[in-house]
Amino acid sequence: MQCPKSAVSKEIVAAKTGSPLICGIGDEELLVASDASAIVKHTKKVIFLEDNQMVILGEKLKLISLPDGKEIKSNIHTLDWEFEDAKKGKFKHFLLKEISEQPRVIENIVLNYAEEINHLAKLIKEAFGTFMLGLRTT
Question: Do the domain assignments include residue 136?
Answer without folding.
Answer: no
